[in-house]
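subagent[fold] <- orchestrator: predict structure for attached chain, return tokens only, no commentary.
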Amino acid sequence: AAYGDSLYGLNRKDNLTFDPSEGLLDSWKIDVKGDDVVTTKVIKRGIPWHNNEGVVTTQDVKFTDAHLLLGGTSSSTVQRPIIFNRDLNNIEIVDDVTLRYHSKLQQLIVDYQKQWVGYLMPKAYVERVGEDGYRKQPVNTGPWKLIQHVSDTRVNLEAVPNHWRQTPEYEKLV
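subagent[fold] -> orchestrator:
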């Protein structure tokens, strides 16, 4: 059970291919111009964070990707990509739903995009509670809300009513 939604969405039938209807992105594309690689991501509008933290913004996506790609947290609740993008020049916010990633090596961006297990972090919440606070009580967008995590023992999850994709069938999972 996921308490977060990935950007790219994983096809539920094969768990191997991307399905944009399952992810937080409306679209993404990669353009190569000489040495320069530009990856453009367009996020869905109005996807709410748990705990009334507002909706997912391009600021949240940039914060998460910069954090992960450029050496952020070591938290087990936030997955680091396998390959760090040393050649990422910058992440540009184009408008309220569009980001552009400027890079020199396409493969590193593509490899990061394949890390669909990573969840977004709400920038304002992480800045307010800090990384330790986020590790203790992460906030995300998935069909399940994390209620309690006892390391190596149990995880308590609660269904998110009216989730943007589908409300889970069960009210609680332990």
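orchestrator: received. Logging for downstream: The helical segments are 58-69, 106-113, 123-136. DSSP finds three helices and seven strands in the chain.
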